[in-house]
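Archive transcription. Copying these from loose printouts into the bound notebook so they stop getting lost. Printout 1 of 2:
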Amino acid sequence: MSQRTLHTLFKPKSVAIIGASNGAKRAGNVVMRNLLSGGFSGPIMPVTPKYDAVMGVLAYPNIEALPLKPDLAIICTAASRVPAIVERLAQFGCKVAIINASGMANQLDEEGQNLLTLTRAHAKRYGMRILGPNSLGMMLPNLGLNASLAHTSALPGKIAFVSQSAAICTTVLDWANNKGIGFSSFISLGDATDIDFDELLDFLGRDSRTTAIMLYIDSVNEKRHFLSAARAAARNKPILVIKSGRSLEGTTAAKLHTGGEVGNDAVYEAAFRRAGMLRVNDLVELFAAVETLAHSAPLQGERLAILSNGGGPAVLGLDQLILGGGKAATLDDDTFDKLNALLPDTWSGQNPVDIGGDADAKRYTQSLDILMNADVTDAILVLHSPSALGDGIEIANSIIELVSKHPRRHKVNVLTNWSGEDSAYQARKLFNRAGVPTYRTPEGAVGAFMHMVEYRRNQKLLQEVPQSIPDNIPTDAQLARSLLQQAIGANKQVIETHEASAILKAYGLNTIETHFAASAERAAEIAEQIGYPIALKVQSPDIHHKSDVHGVTLNLTSHQEVLQAADAMVGRVHSLNQDADIQGLIVQKMALTAGTQEIRVAVTHDPVFGPAILLGEGGSEWQPTTDAAVALPPLNMTLARYMVIQALKTHKLKDRHLPLGLDMNALCVMLTQISHLIIDCPEIAGLDLNPVLCAGEQITLLDVNIQLNANAQDTPNRLAICPYPKELEEHAVLKNGLKIMLRPILPEDEPKHLAFDNSLSDEDRYKRYFGVRSKMTHEEMAVLTQIDYAREMAFIATIKGADGDDITLGAVRASIDPDNTEAEFAMAVRSDHQGIGIGKLLLEKLIAYYKANDTELLTGFTMFENRNMASLAKKLGFSVTFDMEEHLIKMDMPLKPKQD
C-alpha cells in the first residue's frame, strides 16, 4: 500500500483512455466525452488502432506510441484484453489505472489463468496501482476531472464519496446535483482488488479539501487496516457509512455483488461504532446526512429549538427528537420575555416556538434572531407550512439573509424544513444555493440533526478516560493457556463448566463451581458450630462436582429438590445455599430471595472481523444480529460501559431494577476480563456463558461452554484491533539505582500523563513544543494516550508513587506513515529526572520496536537550544544535521539495510 502512488490518483497531470471510441454508447466514448467536458487541463490521450482521432482528439494506435507516460489510464476494453493492457501500461511507466470491465474474477484466459489474478500480478510487478475492476471511475471536480462512465458530472464541494456500488454512485450523484451539493472526490471502488477503503480513508482524512467522508460498503477486506484508517480519519472529520446486507439474504446478495467475505451485520455495526464512524441505514438517511454535512458547522452542543408557524409539524419534530434521544432547548427567562414581547398572545410560550399561522417574514426573522442570540440553543430548526398569510419564498429569503450575516452563525446551526411540494420546492432550492440545510419533512430534519449529535457523542466517548480494573482481579494468561492446551492435547473440542472453572478463575471470573466450593466449606463451619452435620452433592448431566462434608450427603438431582432441601435446612442454617438454575446449580439463597437477573455473554468468531463479544438477555435461543449488543475486543472499562449502555438503549438487555440485579461496574469488569481472556488465548474459538447470574457486585457464570481451536495461532491479524502489547513491558534500573517500568502508553494513563506534561519546566516545554504553548486540554491528551498500536507507538517510563499509583517520568512516541516507510519521533523527560538515563532507555526501546516493525527510517526534529537531545541521538547512531534556515536539528536513522 502506498500513499505516494495515491497522490498520482488524486492529482494526475495526464490521462490516457485505452479503448477510446467514436461509437455512441461505447464505454470508451462515454469516458472521452466526460473527460473533455469536465475541463481537465492536462493532456487527454485516446489509445485505439481503429481511429485517427476520437471526438476530435488525435488518437494513438497503441500504448507505446503515446508521447508521454500517462499518470492515469482508464481501461475501457473487454475483460479478456485487460491483463495484457495492464502489463504494457505498467512497463511503459503508467502509475494508476482504472478498470471498467466486470466479471474478471470468474474468467480465465486461453492458458487457464484467472484474469484478475494475472492483472494483479502484472501491476504489482511494476508498482502500478489499480482502481477496480468493475469501477464506474472517479471524479475530482476541483480539477475538472471526470474519468468515469457516469451520466453527469459532480459539482465541486468538500464531501468525499467512496462506493463499492456503481448504481449507488449514480443515484447519489443525481440527487446531489439536484440539491446543489458538491464533492471533493467521487470514487467508485468496484471490486477493490487493489486500492481499497483503508488507503482512501488515509488520504482523504489528510486532504484539506475534504471536510466529511461518505462510504457505501458491501464488504471489508483488510479489517485491521480499515479500522485503523477509519479511526484516524474520524478524529478529524465525520465519516458516514451505509452498508448493505443488514439481512441474511442481503448479506448473501452483497457477497455475490463484490465477492467479499460475508460477515455478521451486528459485528459490522460494532466495528463502525468503535472506529468513530456514523452508520446510516438507508439512502434517505444518507441523503439527509449529506445535506447536513455539506452545509453545517460542527455542533457546539445538543440543545435544539424548533421555530414553526404550525403546532402539528413542530410536535412531530419534537417527538422525533425526544424519541431519538435528543435534547430540546429550554427557554430561559430573558429569551421568553423577548419572544413574549414580540409575538401574539397565542404563541406557544415554550419550545417548540409556535409563532402562528399568520407569521410573515418579519416575525420569522425577528424570532430567529432572538433564538440565535440565546445562550440556551445550539441549533435551531425552522419549520414552515404552506400558508396564504405568509409568503414562503419571501420568508426563506429573509432567513437566508439573516443567517448569512448573523455574528453567531458559526456557533448556532440553523436547519430548515419547508413542507409541501409545489409551494415549498422553490424555497428549498433557495436554501440549497445559500448553503442552509433544508429537508422535506420535520422528521427528516430532526433525523439529520441527530446524526450530528451521534457523531459528537461518539467522538466524546472515544476521548473518555477508562477506569482501571481493580488490582485484586487476576489475569493469569500462562495458567489459562496451559489448561486450554491440555484440553486440546486430550482431543477435546468443547469444555464445559466444571472443566472451565479454573480457566475462568485465572481471569477473576467465578463459575458456580467456585461459589459451590466456598458454600460447602461455609456450611461445614456452621454445621460444626450447631452440631448438625450437613453436606451437599449436586448431580446433573453437566456438573459432576461432589462435596461430602461431615458424613451426611443430600443427593439433589433437580431444581425442586434443591429448593425443598434448602428451605428445610435454612431454618437451622441461615446462610445455607439454594438452587437458582434449572440445571441444579447452587447459589446463595439470600441473593435469590432478594432478586437477581440472568444475562447471556458470548464470544463468536466473525469471518471478517474475528472475535466479537456479545451481550444480551439470558435464554436458550438468540440471534446475535437482533438479540445482542456486540463489541470488538480489546475492551477497557469505558468501552465495556458503552457496550452495556448500548445493550440497554437498544433493549438487547433489560434492567429489571431488582434489588441485587445489574451492577454497571461489575458488568464492565466481567466484560473487560472476558476481552483479556480472548486476546490472550487464541485456543478459544468460541465462548458461551448462559446464563450469567447478576446479583449486584457478585456475578456468577452458571453454565459455561468453551469451543476449542486445535490449530490456534496468535497471528498478528487475528484481532481486528491491535491490543495493548503487554509483551513490550520491561523493567530497568537507572544510573542512580531507581527501578523503573518501560511500557507502551495506555488510555488509563491520561491523568498521569497530564501531570507529567505539566511537570515540565517552561524551558523544557519550549524545547518539546518548538515554542510557548498553553497546558494540554483533555481532547489533546486523549489523542496522546488513546493510540492505535497498529500504526503508532508511545513508550513511557514510570515509577510507583507512595500511594501505589504510577508516576510518569518520561515519554517517547512516533507515528508511522501508512506506507511504513518513515516514523517521526518526539521525546520528553521530566525536568527533575533528567541526566540519569531515562531518555536513552526510551529511545533505544523505540529504535528496537521500529526495527522489528520493518520501518525504513526513524527521524526526528529538535530545536537548536536542545543540544542534549541531538547529542544523545548521535551517540545512538542517528545522523545529525542542522537546518540553519529553520533553526532546527534533524536526526535520521535508517533502520533497514540498503538493498544491493
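Printout 2 of 2:
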Amino acid sequence: MTGMSRRTFLGLSTAVAAGAAATALTGCGSSTGHRTEAASAKVKLPAYVPFTKVTPDLPANAKGLSAGYLSYPEELIRSVPKTPGDGSKVTLLTEIWTQPPLPKGSNEHWQKINQELGVDLSAILGTDPGYEEKFSATVAGGDLPDLMWIPPNQGIQHIAELLESKCADITDYVSGDAVKDYPNLAAMTPAHWKTAVVNGKIWGAPSPYPAFGQVYAGNPEVWEKAGGLSASSPDEFLAKCKEVTGGKVWALEPIYVNAVSVMSQCFGTPNKWRQNKDGSLTFWQETDEYLAALDFVLKLKQAGVFYPGDPKMADAYLKMAQGSIGATVFANPSGGRANLRTNDPSLAAEILIPFAAGGRQPNHHYHLGTIGYTALKKGSEKRVRMLLGVLNYLAAPFGSKERELLEFGTEGADFTYDEQGFPQRTKKGKQQVEGFYSGLATATTAPFALLPSAFPGTHGPEDVKATYAVEQKLIGTAIANPTVSHYSDAYTEHYGRMSTEATDLVNDIVSGRKKIGEWKPFWTEWRSKGLDQMAREFQKSIEKNA
C-alpha cells in the first residue's frame, strides 16, 4: 500500500491480531465475556480458492512468496459479473495514506465507482496520525458507518465489545465453502482471515499486506565502497558500517528500536513469541537472543555509525536517498525498494539478508499479512450480503477490469498507458483517483502481488524480479508469530503501555542514559504486571485450537 507514513509502516510490522490498548471506545456496551481467548481458537476459516484467470510470471507459494508480474495483461478479465449494490447509501470509515481526493460531488471517478458498485458510497477518510481519534469520535456519535476499517496497531481498545454490540458476525456468510459466493474474498489465504477473528467469529474482510517483515534497505551508492549491504557476521557488518561512515555520511538511521528489531533476527529471536516444548510462551524481547541484539546495537552506537539525530526522526528515508544515511528500516522488502525509487528513481535499494550471529541461526520475521480488516454494521441478511458484495468488488485482483478502474480510473481522463503498457495516472487521476483508491484499498484489496506499477520510474520489471529474489532468500529462515489468530484479553489491556516503556528503555540504553543491565529486570517486573497473563491466555487458545 503506497503512501503509508513511517510510523505506521513500522508499527504494522510489529502489531499482532489482538491489537494494542490505548484509546477507549464509547457508545458500545460490553456484551462479551472476559475470557475470549479460548473462543477465538474455534472458528472455521474461509476456504482458500486462489484466483487463476491471470497467470503471474513469478509464482506465489503457500509460504508467503508474492506473485510477480512483469507485464500488463493484454486483455483484462472481469472478476465481478454483476453489480453488487442495491442502490442504497453506504458509508465507509477508512484511512488514506496520501493526499485526500477531490470530494465526491466534484469527483467523476468517485461517481463512476459508485455506478459500478451500485451504491451511493460516502467515505469518512481518516489520516495517519489521527485515525484512532477519528474512529473513536465516529463510534461515540452513535450512528456507525456501514463499513469500518479496524487496524491492529493504532491503540483502539474494547474492539471485541464494539463488534459484538454493533457489528455483523459474518462467520456464516464466509466460513468454509460459504466464502465461494464472494470469489475475490475467497482468494485470501487463511493467514489473512485469521486477523479478522475475535471471540471465535469472523468480523470482516481482511486488508492484505506483504507477508515479509522488517528489513534494512540501503542506498547502493553509500555501500559500494564496502562491497555492498551484505554481511556474514556481526563483525563484518560492524566493519562495513564503520567503513561507509565518515564526513557527512552515517551508515544507519538513529531509530534504535528498529535497529534492534532487525538485528534480533540475526541473533535468532522468535517472531514476537516463542512456543516452548512444554507449550508455554516466551515474549521475544525477554529472550537472551534479543538481549544479545541490543548489546550489538549498543556497540554500533559506540562506534558512531548512527546518524546523530532524533530516534523518532521523520525524514530518514529522504536522507538515505540523498546519501547522508546508508540504510533505514522498512516494514518489508518491496516497501524499501519502492520508497528509494520514489525519492531517487535512479537508485535500486539493497536489502540486508539476516546473517547468523551469536552462534544462532537467523530468523526472518513474517509480518501479519494484513493491516487489519473492515467490519460491517449489523443489519438484515440481505443488507450484510450486499455489503459483502461491495467488499468483494473492492478485492478485485490484478489483471481484472475492476482493479484497473479502482486503481487508475478511466483511460484518457485519469490514466494513460506508458511505453511498457502499464497504466500511469494523469494529473487529473492523481487528484481524483489516488487518494480515493488509497482509502478503498485500506478497507480491503486483493492479496499482495509484486507489480511494476508499484515502483516509480522505468525499472518496474527489474524491481519486481529483484524483490522476488529477496523474498526467496528470506523464506529460507522466515518464521511466523504463533499467536496470530489467537486472542488475549491481557494483551489488549497491557501491551500498548508495555511496548512504549520497552521502546523508551531501548532508546535510553543505546543512547547511554541507562545501563544494559536494566533490561532483564524490566521484564522480570513486567511478568507480574501482565506479561505472564498474556502468555497463559495465548497458550490456552493455542492448545484448544490444536
